[in-house]
Amino acid sequence: MGFKLGLCFNNGIKYIFRFIWCTVCGVVFWRTYVHYRDGPQYIYLHEILGSWLCIARGSAAVININCAIILLPMCQCLLRLLYYCARKVNINTRRYTINTKVFHIFLGYIILLAAAVHITAHVFNAINFCEKYHSKYTNVNPFSKEKTTIFNIVFATIPGITGILMVFILLILFLTSLQFVRQRVFNVFWYSHRLFILLYVVMMIHGYKGPLRKQLNIEYHRPGCIQTTDNITDSQNSTITGMVNNVTYIEPSVTSWNTTCIEAPKFGHIECQTWLWLCVPVLLYCCDILYRLVRRSTSLHISTAKSICKDIVEISLNVDNLQLTAGQYVFINCSTISLLEWHPFSVVQVPTKTNGHILKLWIKSAGDWTEQFTKKVMPQDSILFNEENLPVSYPEVKVDGPYCSSMEHISQYKVAVCIAGGVGITPFISHLIYLEENNVNTEIQYIYLHCIVRDKTLLDNITSIVQHCSYKLGHSMRIKYDIYYTGDEKFYKHTTDVESFHTGRPSFNKIFKDIRQHQRKNTIGVFVCGPTSMCDTVRRECHINTGFHTKFVFHKETF
Ligand SMILES: NC(=O)C1=CN([C@@H]2O[C@H](COP(=O)(O)OP(=O)(O)OC[C@H]3O[C@@H](n4cnc5c(N)ncnc54)[C@H](OP(=O)(O)O)[C@@H]3O)[C@@H](O)[C@H]2O)C=CC1
């Protein structure tokens, strides 16, 4: 019961929203399906292709609408605006304005599913176009040569070739965005995802003057109309005579229109409307990107760099114009390493008047870019060195931000449980330092901080910051911290003997049970930042321990 209640409480709105979106897609599909099934202008085409025509068009509409909407969750500036507009809404609802990446992924899956249906439908359409070729359907079936094969339709027509190209692009987008690819080779994911631009261009070409044709002259030739011996004009405006004995078109069996044919049916391409769906979101996305490009164009100087532990370096930047909130993150670019690469980092210290507008970031060497960056700001082989050995000049960096994060919400709860793994401590430190430096009034009364660290030097650094802040903030809130050391135990025992220190990983089950006992009838914000497996365990505990009175609201941040 607890797990299901917690799941509903934490994800209820997300699931409701997904359900609504699936319903919208279903309605779009069905309306398009019915339009092509019952529309008099498609009767001749429907005679050849059957329901596959309606399925292909319905799935195309679903692809269009999803391709349009999928860009919006990626408009960071627009989202920030939305987030600030939603300030008055309850916090459990507002966090969805930040977790839009999840909705972006969800839309991606819908596009894949709709694309699979669309491809299948068009394969059958191609078969039908080949098999149901009839000398009398000369205009509605464009593959007028009797020897047309599926191979010809797929590989020798614009819709066929663009369709294959789109399948390849979609596969690349899908495979490179799988979590294990993103985590191991982020650049592969990042660059390959730019292929969406090509996908959109190809999508617009795909339906242009395709083989699907609708009837243009319904008023003069109702399908199923009675042909007379009078002269009627064919689609090329030539005269056809002797219609009774020399039927040019097989009339579909539509009995409701008991009219006489005035003309032969004329057929024309079904207009491609993809651009109509895409133009507004693409425009919004371009504006968002442009704004970000302008915002990120200024180069900044690193004022200091120091080592936090063997693979984490702290850089300080003097930023006058950047307004940040504790818990947010920024993207960093270093042109001497790569002009194109931007990497996200949570801020450790937000620039304020009190600290002289100094922005601090911790950069952990965990990939090509971060390793090169660490070497540039700390050129020695051993990164552990004191401030006198600092390099004379640091590389210039550009900062893009701020970006909203669910870690911002900590000070909006009365009780917050903060769980950090390794460098994931950064957003929590930024809150503690901000609260300590600025003496601001917040909702928060209790902070339970659990920090799990493998590196002894990192542990020492975190401990001194946390001890200092908790001492300074002691008068306004209660901060209970526990630090878990998972590295070499012998080393640990010799150097620390404080009761808040533990060896080995924590038991989250016990932690949550204890908090639940002490914080009855409260809504508790749980914030996790660290390895994915740890976040998953904490999420599960949130669900299990949520009851009717005590609720755990889960928030996480990982890059
Ligand atoms: N500024 C930045 O760069 C930021 C990075 N992050 C995120 O933080 C993440 C972790 O950073 P990193 O320092 O590399 O972390 P580490 O891999 O070094 O792990 C940190 C600690 O977490 C423990 N741990 C791992 N899995 C579990 C688990 N399932 N349950 C309990 N404890 C666990 C580890 O224990 P053990 O030794 O036993 O494995 C270790 O003590 C990154 O993936 C990144 O996304 C977040 C915010 C900011």
Description of the molecule:
- With 559 residues, this protein is an alpha/beta fold.
- The protein contains 18 helices and 17 strands.
- Strands 5-11-8-9-10-7-6 form a 7-stranded antiparallel sheet, sandwiched between helices. The protein has a 6-stranded parallel sheet with strand order 15-14-13-12-16-17, with helices on both faces. A two-stranded antiparallel sheet has the order 1-4.
- α8 runs antiparallel to α11.
- The longest helix has 37 residues, at 2-38.
- The radius of gyration is 31 Å and the shape is elongated.
- Mean pLDDT is 84; it is low at 234-247.
- The protein binds NADPH dihydro-nicotinamide-adenine-dinucleotide phosphate.
- Residues 345-346, 362, 364, 366, 421-424, 426, 452-454, 486, 505, 529-531, 533-534, 537, 557-559 line the site of NADPH dihydro-nicotinamide-adenine-dinucleotide phosphate.
Largest sheet: 7 strands, antiparallel
Strand content: 15-25%
The outline comes out as elongated
Helix content: 40-55%
* Tally of alpha and pi helices: 18
* Rg computed from alpha carbons, rounded to a whole number of angstroms: 31 Å
Q: SS-based structural class?
A: alpha/beta
Adjacency order of strands in the biggest sheet: 5-11-8-9-10-7-6
Gap from first CA to last CA: 32 Å
Average of the residue pLDDT scores = 84
**Low confidence ranges:** 234-247
